[in-house]
Amino acid sequence: MASKQQPNSPGSSEGDERKRKRMLSNRESARRSRMRKQKHLDELIGQVSQMQEENKKLRTMTDNSADMYINFASENNVLRAHLSQLTDRLRCLNSVLEIASEVSGLDVDIPTIPDSLLEPWQLPCPVQRIPASVQMFPC
Q1: 114 touches 94 (CB < 8 A)
Q2: pLDDT in tens, 93-108
Q3: CA-CA distance, 43 to 37, in Å (whole number)?
């Protein structure tokens, strides 16, 4: 068993003093630990809010980019349809010129339809990179 000191003995007050100092030291250490924890928690909460804001901005940019893609795809489809109409019209006009040339006997120079109009996806020029910048996308 542990030995107990008498309350009136001289070692008892010294032991009590050490015990009191140790308790105060432990309390101070616990207080500092709580403060560190709170500071760390505050930093993490700040990071969360910063990341949520960044996530919101990125979602907005993604949505804007998707909208722009849809608009460009739609405009591209309209332009392809227009190209098809103009190509058909050019063919019809060439046919009229051929008939007029045969009927009149005159030699009419009938332009040929360029392959790039017939197959626009096979352009004769090499594929070039299109430079883009962040300023192209509104935030």
Answers
A1: no
A2: 888 888 888 888 888 7
A3: 10
